[in-house]
Here is the input.
Amino acid sequence: MFLQCFASITFLLAAVARAAPTVNILTPVNLRTEGREKTHFEGLIFTKGHNVTTPSGGNHHCDGTNNKENRLPGPTCTSALADAARNRHFAFDGTFDPEFDDFFITSIGGDTETSTEFWGLLLNFQFTPVGGCQQEVKAFQHVLWAFNAFNVTHFLELTGPATARVNRPVILTVTDGSTGSPVAGAEVNGKTSNSEGKVAVTFGKVGVNSVKAEKSDSIRSNALDVSVCVSKDGTRRSMKESYVPKATISPPAQEEIITVMVPTTMPTLIPDQHAPVPWMTRPNNPGFRSTGEALSRSLWTERLSTSRTFDTTFDDFFITSIGGDSETATEFWGILVNFQFTPVGGCQEEVKVVDEILWAFDAFSAVNFLKLNGPPTARRNQPVVLTVTDGQTGRPVAGAEVDGHTSGADGKIIVTFAKAGVNGVKASKQSAIRSNKVDILVLP
Ligand SMILES: *[C@@H]1O[C@H](CO)[C@@H](O)[C@H](O)[C@H]1NC(C)=O
Ligand SMILES: *[C@@H]1O[C@H](CO)[C@@H](O)[C@H](O)[C@H]1NC(C)=O
Here is the structure.
């Protein structure tokens, strides 16, 4: 089916100018609702645009076409809220304003608006310009419903390492997610952030410790999950057994650190919505190349086997296996174009001439998508510096391995090649998708 798709250069150039339309399919979205005293929901929710019913507002469409904001229906900020509320059994309410053709959310999880405190909606830490049924949302974007959002100084964001040793401090950073500026005076695990937003936190308990930053004039932060492990003199064995099943343990490094990575982006599958996301797409537009077609062509060239199912509802393929790596109940194949998850499946997602397409096994559990950069040439036995970053965020990745060497906090790795000729190297790390290959021509 894929092999029948054939594109001329003319068609490819035309494709560049066309934006991929939103498709109304179940889409994983990061949703957080921060109430007066607590977080009602934080996690990944699969949602698509559909009708929403509230006690005060009634039953109305909520798929992005509200108030003619979008031409095509798609998942929205309010559909995500409604789906989380239904699945996790918390209440929400909203009145409906026919003029805006949208709900005004008045209450979530028992936190009801007052004459001075209202619910606000932010997408990727920015207030949305339109209401929640008008605002469509793409895969893995961050939707935040915040109580009293219009009368706060900061929307806190907490970042830090994924791992720590028990009773040893780690430095976490509190920023304002909207501006990126550091926030002083926020509390994390009983400690207060300084003027640079830094706070040293010590964990006494082995296992996954989930922490948030809070400040009285601010919306509390996302939860940061830190996996805390013991050092060599501790009980490594019992420690291993105490981890959640999804955790993977990498070999101990030179010193006594045992790195335990728990994928922080692991989807929280909602019981009645656990169908895999249809990343595959249909050849609905045979004039254009798609990621699915590119996959098919490259697999054919490499003589790799693949299998796929066809979903008639989505009129689209699910790739279930590539080169013998078959999906399991929890591990699926994902597609990324230029290191970002495609909002639609592989045949709907049109690609441009220089786009980088990545099909990755267990992509939805990966903490990082490694990207390796380095010089094109080196001299034999002379060190060269390579850099490992996360392709999605551009941030450096520590603890990645290239040719037996490990990247530091700045993502840098020093590698020496003993063999003249072309040396192809990749970076790899537990819980990360291994990097692109960098070919370095080593001169004698
Ligand atoms: C969805 O809401 C619209 C009004 O926005 C209504 O006309 C339609 O009947 C509703 N559909 C369902 C299935 O309830
Ligand atoms: C902001 O909140 C304070 C109480 O925390 C209240 O006194 C004030 O009226 C609020 N301002 C606005 C503009 O709502």
Notes: The mean pLDDT is 79. Residues 116, 151 surround 2-acetamido-2-deoxy-beta-D-glucopyranose (ligand 2) (CB under 6 Å). The two ends are 48 Å apart (CA to CA).
